[in-house]
Design goal:
Blueprint (H helix, E strand, L loop, with lengths): L4 E5 L4 H12 L3 E6 L2 H15 L4 E5 L5 H14 L5 E4 L17 H23 L3 E6 L22 H23 L4 E7 L3 E2 L8 H10 L4 E2 H13 L10 E3 L2 E3 L8 H14 L4
Parallel strand pairs: 1-2, 1-4, 2-3, 4-5, 5-6, 6-9, 7-8
Antiparallel strand pairs: 9-10
Amino acid sequence: MDKQVCLVTGANRGIGKEVALGLAKQGAHVVMVCRNGQQGVAAQQDIQRLANNLHVDLLLADLSSQASVRQLVDTVQSRYTCLHVLINNAGLMLSERAVSVDGLEMTLAVNHLAGFLLTTLLLDLLKRSAPARIINVTSVVHQWGSIHFDDLQLEQGYDIDKAYYQSKLANVLFTYELSRRLGTVGITVNSFDPRMTATDFAKDRKGFAGFMAKVWKPFMNSAETSGENIVHLATSPEFAGVSGQYVVNRKAVKSSSASYDEQAARQLWDMSAALVRLA
């Protein structure tokens, strides 16, 4: 990975930080994308010190804003002549419905549309850098999700799980559809499921779900383990040329039956393109 350029979103904490650290330890030129400048700088300095690698850059972006994502793309294209690995890791989970600056349901905006827009706009740079790899971080809960095409913004009855599960299924559908559309251009795209990982991602969950998260925490993967597994997917010769897969730990496995619905994937692609003004 010496000097290869790798971009990681949500890189200031949890799995994202561990991924950035693991890539930096392998000598990659890591581009961290974070929303919070203070936390981002602290994480950047930690990674540079622990990896003994000063080639760790920090770019600030609010992924809930399409204008911010587009500005991020402009910055990446102006600063870097190549991009070998793109890891869409950033995500959120909200107990109450909120809308982005673009008027879109926030969970969908950050967990799916931001990665859709960022990836699509960076495809030319990735193609010029081939072989290149794209990894979309999803979740086991995608298997309980549905794409609510008649109410994608969940205006008719928002629920935290309904929103999150939909966004994670969207990650897998996007992965498979992008892989089909890319064909053999030297870019692989895969989904990664970290399974239950002990981070503070869902720390604000209340009620029974929050209680169960605490009970299960001792049995979860560590952020370090999940980060190492993503780095393996991003760098290992084992996954060179492997595309359109759903990876758990370090093995490609079957995802939910709904995730293989090609008509739904095309419909979601078209709706997503319209929502981010690419159509």
